[in-house]
TrEMBL record:
Keyword field contains ATP-binding: no
Origin: domain of life: Eukaryota
Keywords annotated in UniProt: Cell cycle, Cell division, Cyclin
Similarity section: Belongs to the cyclin family. Cyclin AB subfamily.
Cell division is among the record's keywords: yes
Any one GO BP annotation for this protein: cell division
Single GO term (MF): cyclin-dependent protein serine/threonine kinase regulator activity
PANTHER family: CYCLINS (PTHR10177)
Database matches in Pfam families: Cyclin_C, Cyclin_N
Species in which this protein is naturally found: Vitis rotundifolia
Protein name: Uncharacterized protein
SMART domains attached to this UniProt entry: CYCLIN, Cyclin_C
Domain Cyclin-like: 222-306, 319-401
Length: 447
């Protein structure tokens, strides 16, 4: 079969032009009659709208005076090339080189031109704009607009280079640690961010309950934090317990005398999911002052898992805390203070409106502000949490207010827990009062 040969240069569907500007006959599948019926490419180019009649004579008056024409081939029509950073840098370099040449040296001297260009008059583009009655050629306008755009991009790039701070690779040191799953860690947390909405509940779900309220929920969570501490359970168990309670109460009406039963059953389920050694049912009955029987606990367990459709694999604030603390390069002091602040939020019903990832990021931001005495949120933290300082301020101010009153009132379980030496006396840290004292002005800034 006769056709184009991609492996042989010079042979294709349409052959290269001959010396007279026409197509070479006998090459390619569009060859019949081409040499006799089609015009030469050079003559077709003369009819293209917007192309100057000759590149060496922009000014028509100069041509009429010299009464000469140039036989050079016409330049291609300028194409609108996307201005990338690399292209912008190249154009800027060319512009600087042109600017370094004196104005008088830019115009070509006819005496030094080749013999075939003796009759051509070269006119500078700036002179063409000022003296010619004709409109400025399209390619001149395009070039000037492009250069202005390049100047603007140069300024933006320089500002970005000055302001931009490199983001630290927090997983670089764990390349040899198989438990760190460096190859998959980004995809894992991207999945957590995508599915965390499934673990959230409506911030006003308590309005659907007829016999309990948000204050009773706070009392229950505060008591469970003490039970969790007494049993020396894992941190993951506490956060999953609170999540199970909220998700269950958002779907199932509960009378107040059964609310404590919901709490201990949620902790039993969380222990079965997270712990290696699970507390027995009798221990939970004993800790609740034998208010319920074994059968009631098991019946509530069945009701809860069926209501929640056995969905225990949900991202809680704890999984985000571990990742974000790594991004913050935390020490033990920052870690304990961050967990103290976020456990204060577990008790507060109004914090349900914030997503788990936002709670974790805001807790670390608040802890950093508490320890540093000023706002501190690095670019690395912003990169890995996907939250800016402005997005965290509302949640952070609420956390500071909880910290201020943590040791007062009736719900002091978290404060007592973090006042011990085991937790570094984190509760005794001075709150970041300046975050609460700041108030937004009318222009959206801070006062």
């Amino acid at each position: 079969m006769v056709g184009s040969d991609e492996n042989n240069p010079g042979v294709g569907v349409i052959g290269p032009a001959n010396n007279q500007g026409g197509l070479r006959a006998g090459v390619g599948k569009f060859t019949t009659g081409i040499g006799h019926n089609r015009r030469a490419l050079s003559s077709i180019d003369r009819n293209v709208i917007g192309v100057p009649p000759n590149p060496c004579a922009v000014n028509k008056r100069a041509l009429s005076e010299k009464e000469a024409a140039c036989d050079m081939k016409h330049p291609p029509i300028p194409m609108h090339r996307p201005i990338t950073r690399k292209f912008a840098a190249q154009m800027a370099s060319n512009k600087q080189q042109r600017a370094a040449i004196p104005e008088e040296s830019r115009k070509l001297v006819l005496q030094s031109a080749p013999s075939e260009l003796k009759d051509c008059v070269f006119v500078d583009a700036e002179d063409c704009k000022g003296t010619s009655d004709l409109p400025v050629p399209m390619f001149v306008q395009h070039t000037e607009a492009m250069l202005e755009e390049i100047d603007r991009m140069e300024e933006e790039i320089e500002m970005e280079d000055l302001v931009k701070v490199p983001v630290m690779d927090i997983d670089g040191s764990d390349n040899k640690n198989s438990l760190a799953v460096v190859e998959y860690i980004d995809e894992i947390y991207a999945h957590y961010r995508k599915t965390e909405s499934s673990s959230c509940v409506s911030p006003d779900y308590m309005s659907q309950q007829f016999d309990i309220n948000d204050r009773m929920r706070g009392i229950l969570i505060d008591w469970l934090i003490e039970v969790h501490y007494k049993f020396e359970l894992m941190d993951e168990t506490l956060y999953l317990t609170v999540n199970l309670i909220d998700r269950f109460l958002a779907l199932q009406p509960v009378v107040r005398k059964k609310l404590q039963l919901v709490g201990v059953t949620a902790m039993l389920l969380a222990c079965k999911y997270e712990e290696v050694t699970v507390p027995v049912v009798e221990d939970l009955i004993l800790i609740s002052d034998k208010a319920y029987s074994r059968k009631e606990v098991l019946d509530m367990e069945k009701l809860m898992v069926n209501t929640l459709q056995f969905n225990m694999s949900v991202p809680t604030p704890y999984v985000f805390m571990r990742r974000f603390l790594k991004a913050a390069q935390s020490d033990k002091k920052l870690e304990l203070l961050s967990f103290f602040i976020i456990e204060l939020c577990l008790v507060e019903y109004e914090m349900i409106k914030f997503s788990p990832s936002l709670l974790a990021a805001a807790a670390i931001f608040t802890a950093q502000c508490t320890l540093n005495g000023s706002k501190h949120w690095s670019r690395t933290c912003e990169w890995y949490t996907r939250y800016t300082e402005e997005q965290l301020l509302e949640c952070s101010r609420l956390m500071v207010s909880f910290h201020q009153k943590a040791g007062t009132g009736k719900l002091t379980g978290v404060h007592r827990k973090y006042s011990t030496s085991k937790f570094g006396h984190a509760a005794k840290s001075e709150p970041a009062h300046f975050l609460v004292e700041e108030r937004p002005n009318l222009m959206g800034g801070e006062l």
